[in-house]
Amino acid sequence: MSRALKGLALFFAFVVIYTISRHAIDSRSSSSTTTVPPSTTTSVPVTTTTAGPAGCAAGAFAGRFNQGQGAGGDVYASVTITKDTAGTCTLEGWPRLTLLDRLGGLIPTTATDAPNATVSGAFLSPPQANQPPRALTLGDNQSATFDLIYSDVSTGSSCPSALTLSVQLPGGAAEVVVTAVPPVQACNGVLTVSPFFAGA
After folding, report:
1. pLDDT reported for residue 6
2. Are 167 and 79 in contact (CB under 8 A)?
3. Long-range contacts: 116-124, Cβ < 8 Å, 24+?
4. pLDDT score at 20
5. pLDDT at residue number 199
6. Using an 8 Å Cβ cutoff, are 136 and 91 in contact?
7. Domains of the chain
8. Rounded CA gap, 96 and 112, in Å?
9. What distance in Å separates the CA atoms of residue 200 and residue 185, rounded to the nearest whole number?
C-alpha cells in the first residue's frame, strides 16, 4: 500500500473515532434528572372543648319560702334555693311545683309558666321575674329565686293549705323540699310561676 493510501486510511479512522466519541459525550450531556418535590405535611389544629358546669342537682340545695303580699285577691310570694355544696352548676328555666298538705297528701294544682305570650309582667318585683329564663351559674352559698302568684279568693272550690312545696329543678332533677310558713292557700289550685333568676 502506498504512503498516500495509508495516510488517507488514518485520516478516515481518525474521523470515525472522533465522531463516535462526540456522540457518546452528547448522549451523556443530554440526560435529564427528575427532581421529586419534597412532600408536604398539613397540620390540623387540635380543638379542645371545655365542658361547662353540670346542671344543678336538687340535693345540693336548701330551700326557703318567702312570705308574700296580697293585692286584689292575689298573693305574691317567692322561693329561694341556696347551693350548700362546693363546685358550680347551671340552672335555667322554670321549676315544677307540687303542693302537699299537712299530712303529705297531694294538692291538685295547675301552674302556668310566665312570662309567655299571654302572661307578661305578672310579677310585682324584681324585674328579672318578668324576663325569659337565663342560664345561671351557681357556686357554693349562691342563690336563685323564683316568684309565684296564687289566689286566696275562692270561686266555689276549697282553698287547701299547703305546708310543703316540692320544687323540681329544670331538667328533671330531684326535688328540693321547702316548708311554707305561712301555708300556701292556692284557691282552685291555680299558680303562676316565674323562671329562676339570680339572687335572694
Report:
1. 56
2. yes
3. 119/192, 122/149, 122/192, 122/194, 123/76, 123/147, 123/149, 123/194, 124/69, 124/71, 124/76
4. 47
5. 78
6. yes
7. 58-198 (2.60.40)
8. 10
9. 23
